[in-house]
Amino acid sequence: MSTIKLCLCALHTDIAQNGSNLDVQAAQQRIFQINQYFKSDITFIESELALKILFAEDKGIICYAKSIISLDPINTKIITADILFLFQQLIESFPMYIVNYIKSIMNLCNISTITFKKNADLSIRTYQIYEKLLEIEHFSDQIEISKIVEHLNNQVSLGDKIPPTARQHIYNLFGVIAQHHPMYLKNYEDKLMNLFCYELQSQIDIRETNFKKFLSPVAVGCLNGLTGFLNNFADHIKTRDYCLRLYEILKKLIGIVEENKRHIINRTGLNLFQKHIQLFSKLVFQNSIEVMWFQKKLWDWSLLPNIEDKKIGLSSFEILYKGASIEFSRQNKIIESNISNIQQEIIKNMIMFLKLKLCDIKLNYQEHAVVVRSIGWLAEPCNNLLGEKHLVEIFNIFSLQAEEKYLNCPMGKKTYDPNAANYLNSLSLIIRNIKSLNTDQFLFIQKLSIYCFNDFISAQSKSEWQDNISNAIIISIYCLALSHGNILDKYLKQLFYMGLIKSCSHRAAIDAEIVEKYTGHVLIKSINYVSLWISLLKAHQCHLFDLYLNMPILVKSTLEKSLMCSFMSSVLKIIKKLDLSTNKSSDELEAEYIARKPADITVLVNLVEIYSDILHNLELDIESASSWLPYTLNVIINHSIEHPTISSLYRILAVIFQELDWRTFLQKINNNSAKEKIIEYVNCVMVYAHTFKGDLQYCCLNMFMCLPSTIVKEIFNTQIVEVVKSTLIVGSTFLPMAKSAVNALKRWQQDLSKSEMDQLLKCIMPYLDLLLRTRGYDNEVELNNLVLDQMQVQDNRKRTLLKYNKLIMKPETELEIVQIQILEYLSQLDMSTCLELLGDPDRTIYYPHNIINYKLSFNDCKINISFDHLLPRILELCQYCSNRQIRFTACEIFHAYIILYLGNNLILERSKPREMEIVTTKIIPVVIKLACDMDNLIQQLFEPLAIGVVHYFASGIQYNSIYTPIIIDILMDSISENNNEAVRDFSAKCIMEFLRWTLKEDSLSQKLSISLRIIIKKIKSFCLHPNPNKQLGAAIAFNSCYTILREDETIINELWIQLLYYFIVKLDSTKSTNSEQHILKSLDHLQRVFLEKSNLFNEICSSRIIPKPFLGTQLFNVVEWLLRYIGSPMTICRSKCFDMANSLSKNVKGNKNKYFNLAQQSKL
Fold first, then answer.
1. Residue 424: is its pLDDT beyond 90?
2. pLDDT one-digit tens code per residue, 434-470
3. What residues contact 544, with CB distance under 8 A and at least 6 apart?
4. What's the pLDDT at 792?
5. Under a CB-based contact definition with an 8 Å cutoff, are residues 449 and 423 in contact?
6. Cα 818 from Cα 824, distance rounded (Å)
7. Lowest-pLDDT range, 70-84, 217-231, 265-279, 312-326?
8. pLDDT at 316
């Protein structure tokens, strides 16, 4: 943008200082630099900002151009022409952004046209701009087309007075208007048709008699004008006179095929011929001689060395065969025998010509491709006129060639041949006209289609090749749907299944991006196939082949259902075959899940990514969705229940919930089974969703936020409120989650009652408030890049640069978008709801002041800096700020505060114990949470600090300190954290570190005793607590301390039987899979000690504490009690109790066989 500013400043300064004596070459150079800037690699935002600067009202390019035109010397016309050329380039490159400046451009064009009436160059530039603008139809409301037509009509009336190149662009412009805005030429159609034909015929006659007087631009303009004109005014040529005259002219132009000559007018004639061949089909296909002439001449064009000549020749050659297909396929079944014989002869000659070319080994790729496709276009005429036998013969020849070239080709072939799609194209058109396909023919089409699908990535070097592949597969689908609908589903299922396997067989996108970053090599990813999948699944909407295939609407509607059913069937087939089982990490304090088969997980990740992109780009029809969605939901939900730690299954469900209109769908199918299945599944997932972390947590919460409002209404409870709260907590540091939560609130409000929404809003309002109060922008654009630099010339002609603090545009950051969405949502609430949300007394938290101070000493004074008044805001920013930079800065300040706190706590403990207790209970839980933060930088900052804090409070200097019970209480409460499994695991690690560190203090054994007693007391109290999270915390705390607790027989006597009782009772009542895992682990630890210390438990001990249901303190009493739970309705509890009873009974002293047999009988 600075380039544009500098160039504009220099242009305005030059004209202000020098007037008509300005430096023309320098001005041209600066306009060229502006043009080059827009051609460089700039973003869309940069281009929009640059256009705002360029078209500024006071000192922009329009103002400069008007000043140039007002000077009116000869040299300034050159600059004006360059400016108009710049506008032409901008319209081509930025059509969406240039829309705001069309009126300014048109105004300048009108001024230049009026001022420089006799200047051909400026007129041509103006007409070229008109052409570009009028080709974009949504610009028409800003363009006065009627005035342009009137101006053109006046120019045409001047005849030869207008230069030839100007006449060429006038005729071109008439053609553009006729094609895109025909209503403006209703009163000129006869005049234009006569004009085009007369001018064209005159120039062709002059060319033959006196070539020097031949005006090539005029002829080219007439042909271009006719090409556009005939799109909407073809009725004028249907009269024999016009048609025959134009046909003879085109034959003359096509017949001139000479090397090393410019064929501009000839190529223009070929372009008209191929775009409107149907208008001349009766003349072209009147006899075999005429057709053979066109075949020969068009093929000669394709052999010319000039690339443009070759390209137009090849495309026209193929169009000739497409025209034959239309002409001979739509003839009446009853025709005269002599006409039928002529047509048969034409088709035989055309096929013979193609067969000879097909055997020519000198053909290059483009020529071979055209020949192959052209044979396919003759399939229907061949079947109608020569019979199916000839068609089957062609199929066999083609299939043998394709099989040899592609299907049986060795893997290490040297050169890539993209012609497989062309073979598939022609073979598909052939099978459409074969009444009954045999198995070999069907299998060959299927194999070749799969080969083409797999070849899609190999063709990525050219978009044209990839388009050929997608079009060829679509044609094969069309042809099977039209003539062989009974085998279409079989074809689609195999094609889609093999296609999905190929698409998902690459690296996951995130892994591929990392490899690309470090190696510089571009890797193939599953996303590269998405465009092909979308094209195939939208095949029923494709109108590209309607003219040639004539597909009925009924067949298209049936095809839509078949496509989606086959695709979803293939998706589910792959999911069922994947091994999605996971194992938990061997480290008992880590919660990471490790896939047994990582390759299968990668396939699923790629599959879900493809599925998500596809459904996002498709408009799902409710009626067709009802045929595949219920079964799809059932399969995915069952897999998700079986494998709850697979995030991709939540992602795929979120896509289904998000992309479908569920209200209409549930009404349409009138079946409650799908609805009940979703409700049951959601209730099940909400039980253990709070145990997830990282990507698994994101995906699960996002799935909840995508739930349809009709489902949420049925399951609305405190759990769904907690889910939304958790989503907003995560969203404070990961904004897409916050956005999902706000969108969910807007959507759910449609079906939830006012009382339900009010209950939800009261709970989540503090978290919305935190997002609204966050300041700063992640990608804020510097003000200097958003101001308009303006040059003003003072009386002394010195340049002064003025910067106005006027934002041209400030792009909205992701945080701003979320905040705007929240405000928009809150603004829609009624007044009573808003008033109820005002004020939250629970947010007023007391923090002591003037506790933690930092003293700075200077020569003349001492400064005492207190951080306590900032602490509430620092803690809030550390945990919830959405701006990463601000959040990390707050974390660094908080880190420094903790260091000060640790350095002063021994002194302050004696002087201000109450205040220090409050501060400790506020800051240490935050330290633990930040040590488990999902931001690696923050985690690396606080994890060592948290471990250090634990070591400090477990050290000898803290003996008999008030902090020991406080720290243990904090850690135990963190272990019971409901919404963050990472915090639970890390707190358990800290408990273990606390006890291990106290063991190192050999001289202070009493300290260990105090710490252990507090922890044991907390474990026992948590076991008795009615809150299931506290009970789960007891199991986690015990598992972390087990290796220490088992070493002390006093603790074993006091604690072991009590814990056994608490954990078995908990296991008998729990339905949470995560709780079961921790409790089973605790029971394994208890069982191991019972076995190893069986001699201890076989003896009577008066100091051993037992619960009331136990009849004694010995091991056989434990076995007897365990046998009571063999009848538990909970399978896990029943199985575990039998296993423990069976194992412990073998170690019972004296009556070992008795209890062992009793255990066996209880099992039976």
1. yes
2. 888 889 999 999 999 999 999 888 887 777 888 889 9
3. 471, 474
4. 34
5. no
6. 10
7. 70-84
8. 92
| Structure confidence at residue 238 (pLDDT) | 61
Cα of first residue to Cα of last residue in the chain, in angstroms, is 85
CA gap 96, 93 in Å, rounded: 9
Instruction: Tell me the percentage of the chain whose pLDDT exceeds 90.
Output: 13
Indicate the pTM of the whole model: 0.73
Pull the structure tokens for residue 510.
Answer: 């995130």
Q: Specify the residue for token string 């342009």.
A: 148
Token output for 757: 């929404």
Q: Are strands 862-866 and 853-857 parallel, antiparallel or unpaired?
A: antiparallel
CB within 8 Å of 828: residues ≥ 6 apart: 746, 749
Structure tokens at 521: 């090599």
Do residues 1008 and 1001 touch, judged by C-beta distance below 8 A?
yes
Question: How far is residue 240's CA from residue 971's CA, in Å, rounded to a whole number?
Answer: 96
Q: Where are the beta strands (DSSP E) in 770-851?
A: 788-793, 799-804
Reduced to 3 states, what is the DSSP secondary structure of residue 854? strand
Q: How many helices (H) and strands (E) are present in the chain, helices listed first?
A: 55, 6
Largest CA distance in the chain: 131
Both structure tokens of 655: 């896509």
pLDDT tens figures, 154-199: 888 888 888 888 889 999 999 999 998 889 888 888 888 888 888 8
Q: C-alpha dihedral over 185, 186, 187, 192, to 10 degrees?
A: 50
pLDDT score of 515 more than 60: yes
The token pair at 956 is 């000898």
User: Rounded to an integer, what distance in angstroms lies between the CA atom of residue 1100 and that of residue 1117?
Assistant: 11
Alpha-carbon separation of residue 654 from 527, 633, 646, 700, 702 (angstroms): 19, 11, 13, 9, 7
The CA-atom distances, in angstroms, between 596 and each of 578, 592, 599, 693 are: 11, 13, 9, 20
Residue 153: CB atoms within 10 A of its CB come to 16
List C-alpha distances in Å: 598 to 69, 246, 470, 578: 70, 68, 32, 10
How many Cα neighbours within 13 Å face the side chain of 735? 19
Q: How far is CA 324 from CA 278, 329, 345, 350, in A?
A: 9, 8, 13, 10
pLDDT at 330: 60
Q: What tokens does 1124 get?
A: 């009571």
User: How far apart (Å, rounded) are the C-alpha atoms in residues 527 and 604?
Assistant: 13
Residues 6 or more apart in contact with residue 340 via CB below 8 angstroms: 385
- Can you state the percent helix, strand and coil of the chain, rounding each to 5? 75, 0, 25
Domain boundaries, the chain: 1-142, 400-580, 722-777+807-838, 844-1047, 1054-1163
Beta-strand ranges (E) seen in 324-458 are none
Is the separation of the CB atoms in 233 and 178 below 8 Å? Answer: yes
Tokens encoding 17: 């200082």
Q: What is the dihedral of CA 393, 398, 399, 400, to 10 degrees?
A: 90
Distance CA 662, CA 706 (A): 11
| Residues across the chain | 1164
pLDDT, position 841: 42
Integer CA distances (angstroms), 975 to 74, 478, 586, 970, 984, in order: 85, 61, 20, 9, 4
For residue 718, pLDDT over 80 is answered with no
- Pure H helices in 838-912: 871-880, 884-911
pLDDT at 805: 31
The reported pLDDT for the residue numbered 272 is 92
Tokens 């005006």 sit at which residue? 215
Q: DSSP assignment of 911-977, as one string?
A: H-HHHHHHHHHHHHHHHHHHHT-SSHHHHHHHHHHHHHHHHHHTSGGGTT-THHHHHHHHHHHHHT-
Which two tokens mark 781? 């654009």
844-1047: CATH architecture = Alpha Horseshoe (1.25)
Assign 640 to helix, strand or coil.
helix
